[in-house]
Amino acid sequence: MAGSKKNKLKKSQSPLKTTETPPQVLAHDDDDLMNVLFAQLDSRNPTVQAESATIIKEIQCDAQANRMEGNNKQDAKARFKARQARKAAALAQTQLPDDPEQQARLLEEAREEAVAIARICDELNLQICEINPDGHCLYSAIADQLVLLGVLPPSHATYSTLRTTAADFIYSHPNDFIPFLPSVGGEDGQGSLDSGLMTPQQLGQYCTAVRDTAVWGGEPEILALSRAYNIPIHIVQAGRPPIVMHNPTGAATEGSVFDQGVARISYHRRMYGLGEHYNSLRPKRIP
């Protein structure tokens, strides 16, 4: 299995046919392959960038699907269809369009986003510290900030530690998070009539995924970490508002963008072909 993935990787330096069979399962000894794929996300070749992102997304989706299906009593045909549906969705989200004009537009959006974030960083005397785009970027970026703030020692400032912290906080404060978490059924499902809120069992499954998988983090996890570590977390982004402030108290407008003792990260929609990404923001000059 690993050999077939590496053969596919060698071909990724030239345009690939999207009909090739993608890798199916992420094995424990495939770390080198993943590192190369993540490195190729910085490629100037949009085809290489898109193909690497597609492979990574497929691998992560399949790995998570296999874990979730371990206790599933569905037959093999149903599991196969579920995996195919997930891979099709991942491919649609990560692959660059074939239209050259649309590709150029996306690349221009990425350039404009980079300029906008750089401008805000200059105003705040910050510089971007690149975080590995491996699905754990939110947690790694905030972990880097917690070291700068002296909240955590470097030995404990890992994405694994922060994933566990976020999962435990969300699970122990269900009423604060369930209304804002994606429902598994309910009002978001076709023909549903109930409220769409997670059940306690579904919340447990959500928190398990946050803690034990590479599922990407978002607003609920940022708020959970802000409250768990009792620090504001400011997110620099292109667009409006340019700085999103998350405070432990929940107040959206509390404090200033220039306050001390704040964790600062940047949010990128177009930086990598893989999709949304977070980086850490460090001071250009440390007093």
Automatic annotation (TrEMBL):
**Mind telling me which InterPro entries this protein's record contains?**
OTU_dom, Papain-like_cys_pep_sf, Peptidase_C85-like
- Disordered, as annotated region: 1-28
One Pfam entry name: OTU
Q: Mark out the compositionally biased spans (Basic residues).
A: 1-11
Q: Where is the composition biased (Polar residues)?
A: 12-22
Q: Which PANTHER family match?
A: DEUBIQUITINASE OTUD6B (PTHR12419:SF10), OTU DOMAIN CONTAINING PROTEIN (PTHR12419)
From the Swiss-Prot or TrEMBL record, give the protein name: Unplaced genomic scaffold K443scaffold_6, whole genome shotgun sequence
Q: Which organism is it from?
A: Laccaria amethystina LaAM-08-1
